[in-house]
Design a protein that fits this description.
The chain has about 160 residues and is mainly alpha-helical. It has two domains: about 100 residues, no CATH class; about 50 residues. It contains seven helices and two strands, in the order H-H-E-E-H-H-H-H-H. It has a two-stranded antiparallel ribbon with strand order 1-2. Helix 1 packs antiparallel against helix 2.
């Protein structure tokens, strides 16, 4: 596989916004249409990012966020939404994956795997405190945040509950 110039992680030391801009420029120079179109799709979602605003009359409203106000979490939320909609499309068309989905995934933090999730649950959850294993879902998701797949956690808890 060739060296991938696109993608992002918190360790790179550059904001996701700046990385997307750099990747857009690189993809245009390399004439890589798929990466260019994917990055443009993410950037086209920026107008959905708003900040609350109180008008002089006291009325609450919203305004678009300026470039310097856009956080990595804002953009990660956009990318997660695009990934979710692409997975829905792939499910309907009975396809496994797409180049678009793979490019989007390079910008998301690495999800926690099944083994790591299961190990954490076994070490930290006392199931005697719950009426059933599914009640631990909130605790597990609070610990892992958006790095854990809720469906995977649900499946693991379901399997533990049957034991």
């Amino acid at each position: 596989m060739e060296d991938r110039y696109y993608g992002w992680s918190k360790d790179t030391g550059i904001s996701l916004l700046d990385k997307l801009k750099a990747d857009l420029k690189s993809s245009m120079l390399k004439k890589d249409d798929q990466v260019r179109n994917t990055v443009r799709q993410v950037m086209s979602e920026y107008p959905k990012l708003t900040a609350p605003l109180t008008l002089e009359s006291g009325k609450k409203s919203f305004r678009l966020k300026k470039g310097e106000e856009i956080t990595d979490d804002d953009i990660l939320g956009i990318i997660r939404g695009l990934v979710k909609s692409e997975k829905t499309v792939l499910e309907l068309t009975k396809k496994e994956t797409s180049v678009y989905l793979e490019i989007l995934s390079t910008y998301l933090p690495q999800m926690v795997g099944r083994e790591e999730t299961e190990a954490w649950i076994k070490e930290n959850i006392d199931f005697s405190q719950y009426k059933n294993s599914m009640q631990a879902m909130g605790t597990v998701m609070k610990h892992f945040g958006k790095l854990a797949d809720g469906n995977l956690v649900k499946k693991i808890l379901g399997e533990i509950g049957k034991k």
